[in-house]
Write a structure and sequence with these properties.
Low-confidence stretches: none
Number of strands: 2
Shape: globular
Helix content: over 70%
Order of helices and strands: HHHEEHHHHHHHHHHHHHHHHHH
Largest sheet: 2 strands, antiparallel
Strand content: under 5%
């Protein structure tokens, strides 16, 4: 029965792994003829995973969660909610990828297969209950990400992005592994709850170093300051659909992994890591906002925007309460929609020859050429800035509310004040698109898949999104309940 329960709990990872292996064989035998069916099959597998994860999240039988394979893997509302966001982001990225790579002669079946294996790794990361499971999932996700970043072999910028991501990602993985070795050495175990029990009496100097090293490595994965330096270069150089993926699904997985690590094995020593998280949150907000101000390249600007948003997410984690965890998950849900929508809009910005429009000068007067696209971008930028009544405001509100309830009033106040800086570069989009004179021709048509993804994201972050506050609040409360008995 224990084996059957374990197989049931890990059905999503098993399904995606089998789908990836089968589609890899199909790609190897079928070549270019089967790329479209392989991509469709990958989307179907990911959608089935969303449905099953939603079942685990909403089924009262699994409210208390359960362990699989002797405590290596944990099923709970937190992991299920994170997986839903991850798989939805992967689906959106696959939908908008096809036309981009077809135009460049690089649309191959390996792309959706890599996406599936990446999703398997990310799922293991967010549900890991043991350091070994976490590291296996992390490496599975990272290795496929390195290949995706350099997927355009003929593009020097893509190759450069892949190399930078590989070198710095390997460094971060080494830091995490070294921290894990210290944690294991001073606790005698790799199981999360056993580590928490071992550290309940306090952290020795060596164990504290282990905690700091683990958190530093995870901070790299979420691009938090001061481990953010790779983000603008990789986001700019990687193919835009891959950048869309990096800014959404792996970000959710890394943040969820960080939250689980902080609240499970290190949850009994909040004072040891809370100040680190507070510093990273404030530094990310300020550096992300100031770094974006001088950017002319749109992808680099959105990279700094991503760093800025990570800062707001970390404010929820700094609260170290179930309210804070719920705020983090709410922010992530809204952030995924805003990010996927923004990068999809960038994919649609091209001149009549198919060349991408990558700078502010290129999108001058966009409202006169592509008014619907310009208005969608306006809504997305205002939502990223947290301007009501758009749904992005609600994401910031819940993390600041969690901080206030945790008596981190100064942190919330500084975060609110610093968020005003970010409004400048978001408003720059509006100024350029609506008030500047056009300087370049813009392609008049975009693929249907792009419009569908953009429309769904724009609708989600519009005032209509507030209709989801009650169910979203319920789902995030279920996610936070996984830590309610621990804090």
């Amino acid at each position: 029965m224990a084996l059957l329960s374990s197989l049931y709990f890990t059905a999503v990872e098993i399904t995606l792994s089998l789908a990836g292996l089968v589609l890899l064989l199909v790609t190897a035998w079928g070549g270019a003829r089967v790329v479209r069916p392989v991509a469709i099959a990958a989307v179907v597998a990911l959608f089935a995973s969303v449905v099953f994860s939603a079942h685990l999240l909403t089924n009262p039988s699994f409210e208390l969660g359960g362990d699989a394979f002797g405590g290596l893997y944990r099923v709970d509302g937190f992991g299920s909610f994170a997986k839903i966001l991850i798989y939805l982001a992967c689906i959106a990225c696959l939908i908008v990828s096809g036309s981009y790579f077809k135009e460049r002669g690089a649309w191959r079946g390996e792309y959706p297969v890599l996406m599936l294996f990446n999703a398997v790794g990310m799922g293991m990361m967010v549900s890991a209950a043991d350091l070994m499971t976490l590291y296996i999932g992390l490496e599975m996700s990272s290795l496929s990400s390195y290949v995706l970043a350099s997927f355009l072999k003929q593009d020097s910028r893509s190759s450069e992005a892949g190399l930078k991501y590989f070198v710095l990602g390997a460094l971060a993985s080494g830091i995490i592994l070294y921290g894990m070795s210290l944690v294991y050495g001073f606790s005698g175990t790799t199981n999360y709850l056993a580590i928490r029990t071992a550290f309940d009496g306090g952290l020795s100097t060596g164990a504290l170093f282990g905690v700091v090293f683990v958190l530093a490595g995870l901070a790299f994965k979420i691009a938090a300051v001061p481990f953010h330096m790779w983000t603008p270069d990789v986001y700019e150089g990687a193919p835009t659909p891959v950048t869309t993926f990096f800014a959404s699904a792996p970000k959710v997985a890394a943040v969820a992994m960080l939250v689980r690590m902080a609240m499970d094995p290190f949850g009994g020593q909040v004072d040891s890591w809370q100040q680190i998280v507070i510093f990273a949150a404030l530094a990310s907000i300020v550096v992300g906002a100031l770094g974006a101000i001088g950017q002319q390249n749109l992808k680099r600007l959105l990279a700094y925007s991503s760093i800025n948003n990570v800062g707001f997410i970390l404010i929820g984690l700094a609260a170290a309460t179930p309210d804070g965890v719920a705020g983090v998950m709410t922010y992530l849900a809204i952030y995924v929609a805003m990010t996927v929508g923004s990068f999809t809009a960038l994919l649609m910005l091209r001149d009549p020859q198919g060349n991408p429009l990558e700078t502010f000068a290129d999108i001058s007067g966009l409202s006169t050429k592509r008014p619907v696209l310009a208005w969608c971008l306006l809504a997305l930028m205002f939502s990223l800035a947290g301007i009501p009544p758009l749904f992005g405001f609600w994401g910031k509100f819940v993390v600041f509310q969690a901080a206030v309830r945790a008596d981190l009033i100064a942190l919330a106040a500084i975060g609110i004040a610093a968020s005003v800086i970010g409004a400048f570069y978001y408003l720059k989009f509006i100024k350029v698109m609506f008030f500047d004179e056009p300087t370049r021709e813009v392609e008049a048509r975009s693929p249907l898949g792009h419009w569908v993804v953009l429309a769904l994201c724009a609708a989600f972050i519009s005032p209509l999104g507030y209709l989801l506050t009650i169910p979203l609040g319920d789902w995030t409360a279920r996610a936070a309940a996984a830590f309610a008995i621990l804090v």
